[in-house]
Amino acid sequence: MNRSSIEERIRKIAATIFDVKPDDVRRETTFAELGADSLHQVELAMAVEESFGLEISESVARQFVSVQAVIDYVHQHTDLK
User: Fold this and answer.
1) What is the value of pTM for the model shown?
2) Which parts of the chain have pLDDT scores under 50?
3) Of 19, 23, 24, 37, which one is the catalytic site residue?
């Protein structure tokens, strides 16, 4: 899986969690812009874990401030490259 495929999947996950259209979620979109709270961060981390087969610690999940941050994390921590 290449970086653009990872991005597309993460954008869809974020769109579902934040109830917006995938086209409204860009790499530079911050989760604060989407109205994120701590529950959203947990939901996002759980969805990313399930989708990519990763384990994400709570401290790492708190560092996910933007779509790009999640893309970078997944790209660095999967063997889907």
Assistant:
1) 0.90
2) 81
3) 37
